[in-house]
Amino acid sequence: MSKKSTDSRIHCEYSQLIKLQSQAGFFSLLPNFKAGTALSGRHSSIFRGRGLNFEELRHYQLGDDIRNLDWKVTLRTGKPHVRSYTEEKDRNFIICVDQRSSMFFSSIDTMKSVVAAELAALTAWRILKDSDRVGFIINTPDQIHWLKPKRSQADLLHRLQLLSNVNQLLDVTSSDNNEVGFTQFVTLLGRLKLKEATIIILSDWHGATVDEITHLKHLQKHNDVLGVLISDPFESQFPSQYSHWVVGDGAYQLNLSDAKRFDLANKGLGEHQDLKKEQLIQLMATKGLPLIEADTSGHHLEQFKRAIGGR
């Protein structure tokens, strides 16, 4: 049984995830991205060809590709016939939603875990609107949920309920000790042997290494990968008003009322986190993997839609 929450900024509400369906028409995941968006420049579209479906057998017309001639029917009837094909539009989308303990944090407005859940729901509704299949990988502190791609509103509703449930299980007592890490998540993606799928990763990328980014690059050979980095400014720099700040990790606490202690902690945090974030951005760019950003300011839906060329 999931815990009830009165503040949708701390825990996402199932009802809110459903309401996001109304915003699915204000952006598109189809291959018509505007120049200058995060997804432009690698291909004319991030989506690969999905193959051809046989549509009909008809008489040859001037201009038809002779490679599509059906010789058996042509010989049998004495008249040239061609096989007509249409491009397959079906796509499988895999939305990877990070709901680990590191995501239960925000210093501004909305928890990173809620940002990820709401962006996942918004994207899923858009995918369903385009009549494509949507699957989920939900990474929680103690397990990974793999939900195969389906084109069904009923299935999506069940999955959003699960996402809401696991989100509401996160609290301040959640620990990252011995939890399922980013490595296990990437390993699962490899084991699934996905092909011609679009993979969208919504995470703070905590625990990601060069090896994991390289593995995602390998996945991109047969799929399309989009990374969404969810961050909070407090992870890079402490606020300037520190006189009453006490920080802790669940076991130890540090009082930052001393200016020297504050400056030392701030410098150490900034060096560690900034380097990590910048390294991720640089690695993704080097590997040719699109990466967009959303933060905990409460404007994540607008940030996401704007980044992929929505309105």
UniProtKB/TrEMBL annotation:
Transmembrane segments: none annotated. Residues 56-240 form the DUF58 domain. It comes from the Bacteria. Coiled coil: none annotated. SUPFAM superfamilies: vWA-like. This is DUF58 domain-containing protein. It comes from Photobacterium iliopiscarium. The lineage of its organism: Bacteria, Pseudomonadati, Pseudomonadota, Gammaproteobacteria, Vibrionales.
